[in-house]
Write a structure and sequence with these properties.
By secondary structure, this protein is of the alpha+beta class. The protein is built from 4 helices and 15 strands.
């Protein structure tokens, strides 16, 4: 379940270090682990992350190279009364099939995380990934928490960083919409790097100004300002990206009046 941050054995593996209980709680809280989730813990140690996930109603798999730790984790799950939902296996973390996961947890060296990056990005949009003291290459986290943990066994000062990533949907491309009664034909040209979006939007040929945007899993949000039908409006788009379609709603307001319209967009291929 846990790995130290700046040292390793000569063979490139990392020795086992327990994740403090307080950090386990924060990791699961950030990932919003709940009933129906399937948690995969890479480097599961004594099994505490998978066991605590199972106590929340989730199912989970913990993998570790040490057979003694896998045996201990299995026994710990049995004693906790969650042996039917918490499973442990002796396995190299790079051999694990991550596809079933809705949540992936890890406490690994940053170099290990970076090697996992391509596989993590291929997971289903909305999959949550939580790491203790280790980024994932150049992928910026969606949420970051830093806290002091006196019982932390490695490092100086007992400080920990917990980071959350939500696998983003593929939103890149040119999208078109027809919004009756408000601009008619809309075009959205979206560039994407991880969850960061670069959006150019036009309504009936008029360019609008992007004020803000966010992509979190399948959910896309955009705030656009500009003139539509000779009047300046604030536009708040919220939708869900699924394949080549987006479905959601648009809230239009000018400070004194507002209305909500259905919004659907189709991507050109």
């Amino acid at each position: 379940m846990a790995q130290p941050q700046s040292w390793a054995w000569d063979d490139g593996t990392v020795p086992y270090v327990q994740t403090p209980v307080e950090i386990v709680e924060r990791m699961l809280r950030m990932a919003e682990v709940r009933q129906g989730d399937y948690v995969i813990d890479l480097g599961s140690g004594d099994g505490r992350i998978v066991i605590e996930s199972a106590k929340r109603g989730a199912r989970g798999l913990g993998v570790d190279l040490d057979p003694a730790l896998v045996k201990a984790a299995t026994e710990n799950a049995r004693r906790a009364g969650v042996g039917d939902r918490a499973r442990f296996q002796v396995m190299d973390l790079f051999d694990v099939d991550l596809a079933p996961a809705t949540v992936v947890t890890m406490y690994l060296l940053p170099d290990f995380n970076a090697k996992l990056l391509p596989r993590l990005l291929r997971l289903r949009p909305g999959t949550r990934i939580v790491s203790h003291d280790g980024g994932i290459g150049d992928w910026p986290a969606d949420e970051t928490l830093e806290m002091r943990v006196p019982e932390k066994p490695v490092g100086v000062g007992g400080r920990s960083k917990v980071e959350l990533w939500v696998v983003p949907a593929d939103a890149a491309g040119t999208w078109t919409s027809s919004i009756a009664g408000h601009g008619g034909a809309w075009t959205f040209r979206i560039g994407q790097k991880y969850q960061a979006l670069d959006i150019q939007a036009t309504a009936d040929g008029e360019r609008l100004q992007l004020r803000n945007s966010r992509l979190r899993g399948e959910e896309i949000k955009m705030v656009l300002m500009g003139k539509v039908a000779d009047h300046y409006w604030h536009h708040f788009f919220v939708g869900r990206v699924q394949g080549d379609t987006i479905s959601g709603q648009l809230v239009v307001s000018d400070g004194t009046r507002s209305r909500t319209l259905p919004w659907a967009a189709t991507r050109s291929r």
